[in-house]
Write a structure and sequence with these properties.
The protein has seven helices and two strands, in the order H-E-H-H-E-H-H-H-H. The chain is mainly α. Helix 4 packs antiparallel against helix 5. The relative contact order is 0.10. InterPro entries: DUF1836. This is DUF1836 domain-containing protein.
């Protein structure tokens, strides 16, 4: 279980851009990239990995994942949307994110939609999800260990790790499939 605690700590699950992290002034692209690098640096798999690049942001803009910027500056709402994109792109296609955000972008541009309140709700759910995730991973690790013991193989540590990876990967696929079904519902309602 100690290894699982180390894993959960190493994941830096609590790292998120909060509204307090986002300045009240509009930012240039390099400043946006720096904000993301500073916030998510501990989540990198290796030092070469880039959290956010100019190309990524330009592709999000060209793909109309967020409403147009003004004077080459990104507002707080842009940064919130980029933060959501950053979180979603790990298990959603850019095409699905675009579908998901079309309504949000329209609300932002045509009404007094309080994106900051929406984002705070998202962050609240994220915090709850992190706690649920930690508990679930610990439970799966315990179940994995008991299954590997039944195998009576001398390479228990390795088999335990493979079984845990396979189990977590399967759970990830289940969540991804649920997300895809929900996006399909949005498409059907258009």
């Amino acid at each position: 279980m100690e290894k699982i605690e180390d894993l959960l700590t190493a994941l830096s699950l609590e790292q998120n851009i909060t509204l307090e992290n986002i300045p009240d002034i509009d930012l240039y692209m390099d400043q946006v990239i720096q904000l993301f690098e500073n916030t998510y640096n501990s989540t990198k798999r290796d030092e070469e990995e880039k959290i956010l690049t100019k190309t990524m942001i330009n592709n999000y803009a060209k793909g109309k994942l967020f409403f147009p910027i003004k004077n080459k500056k990104y507002s707080k709402d842009h940064i919130i949307l980029i933060s959501l994109i950053y979180q979603l792109k790990g298990n959603m296609s850019i095409k699905d994110i675009k579908v998901l955000f079309e309504g949000l972008n329209e609300k932002i541009m045509t009404s007094d939609f309080a994106l900051e309140h929406f984002y705070n709700s998202y962050l609240q759910l994220v915090n709850e999800n992190v706690e649920t995730f930690k508990k679930d991973v610990k439970d799966i690790a315990v179940a994995t260990k008991s299954e590997v013991i039944k195998l009576e193989d001398k390479d228990e540590d390795y088999l335990e790790q493979v079984l845990l990876i396979a189990s977590l990967s399967y759970m990830s696929n289940l969540y991804r499939r649920a997300v895809e079904k929900l996006v399909d519902e949005i498409i059907q309602k258009r």
